[in-house]
Amino acid sequence: MNHSVCQPFMPEHLYIEEAVRESPWTRRILDRLPGADCIVVEDEKALPLNPPPKSILLARQRGPFLRLCPGTSRHICCLYHNLDIAAGCDLGCSYCILQGYLNVPMTTLYCNLETMFAELDDTLKRHPRQFFRIGTGELSDSLTFDHFTAWSGDLVDYFSRQSNAIIELKSKNTHTAHFLHQPHNRRTVVSWSVNAAAMVASEEPNTPPLAARLAAAAAAQEAGFWIGFHFDPMIRHEGWEEGYRAVVEAIFARIKPTNIAWISLGALRYPPFLDEIIRENHPESRIPLGELLPGADLKFRYFKPQRIEMFHKMYRWIKSHGQETPVYLCMESDEVWRKAFGWSPGNSAGLKRMLDRRVGGSIR
């Protein structure tokens, strides 16, 4: 696909649960998609097994919106909280865990956001001395539906008034213009997942190119937001060193180190069942061709020395531009940290303190 002509996803069929039919967030979506076919259903059990293309479900979130990242045993975790406002994504990246994780036949947007804000109020008020880093990018891309939901603007507004929390909007997309003018009080981190150009072309073909992501990051920087970057998954491929180093150079050509909240590194990893799904859904993908073996967490991973080599070189390239910019590993052991970086936060609490401190989150 030609990245330069990537068009925003526009749903053509909206299945609307009766419970959120009158929600103001549902109304906003309907107002912005006047041509969409609307079908009201009692709940997700009434959905067709094979819905037409470009279908989305507007539903009520029945479980909690806010969840602590489950992490992985024997690996250091940043103790992040996930905010589940959507489940599903239109970008179709080859390695995406959502291909084998979600069991609803279409992307779901949760339109009872008044419940979410009440839940956030309760949690943040009950733990005034705890700092929360919260993100919306686990079960969906944070910005990919924002051109018709504008939900990130609601989150920017809410978190601008919080003293013990920040929101991270993590995306490969560029739908930021609608909230850049809003007061944010430096309580929003706008982050981009980035990859080497060859991997964007082969494994993320429906996404905006790196140049577009960095242009959006530069605009968010100009508006005073914290900026974040996530090299995850890093994929070993021919020319990976030149490819990833070029991305680092491009980032620091546009973004000042003082405005970067953090940069994370994570090597390709996925549960064994995803291997067959990738081969079936993405026959051109290079991912199943890599030398991956089950790790301590039973996920397919590169050999430890290969991961350490990738992380060590990336750390050196990043720090040559921004000594103060925090760089951290996602789901790696203390041993890998020490061999790749020459130091380690020691444990998950240590990593949490480091990242909290960076965004002014030291609660005493």
Which helices and strands, and how do they pair?
Elements: E1 13-17, H1 24-32, E2 37-41, E3 55-59, E4 66-68, E5 81-83, E6 86-87, H2 98-101, E7 107-110, H3 113-126, E8 132-135, H4 146-149, H5 151-159, E9 165-171, E10 188-193, H6 197-203, H7 210-222, E11 226-234, H8 240-254, E12 260-267, E13 269-270, H9 273-281, E14 292-294, E15 300-302, H10 304-319, E16 327-329, H11 334-341, H12 348-358
Parallel strand pairs: 1-2, 1-3, 3-7, 5-8, 8-9, 9-10, 10-11, 11-12, 12-16
Antiparallel strand pairs: 4-5, 6-7, 13-15, 14-15
Helix pairs in contact: 7-8, 8-10, 10-11
Strand content: 15-25%
Number of strands: 16
Termini gap: 51 Å
Going by CATH, the architecture would be Alpha-Beta Horseshoe
Number of helices: 12
CATH class call: Alpha Beta
Describe the protein in words.
With 364 residues, the protein is α/β, with parallel strands linked by helices. It has one domain (3-358): pyruvate-formate lyase- activating enzyme (Alpha-Beta Horseshoe), CATH 3.80.30. 33% of the residues lie in helices and 20% in strands. The strands form three sheets. The protein has an eight-stranded mixed β-sheet with strand order 4-5-8-9-10-11-12-16, sandwiched between helices. Strands 2-1-3-7-6 form a five-stranded mixed β-sheet, with no helix packed on it. α7 (210-222) packs parallel to α8 (240-254), α8 runs parallel beside α10 (304-319) and α10 (304-319) packs across α11 (334-341). The protein is globular.
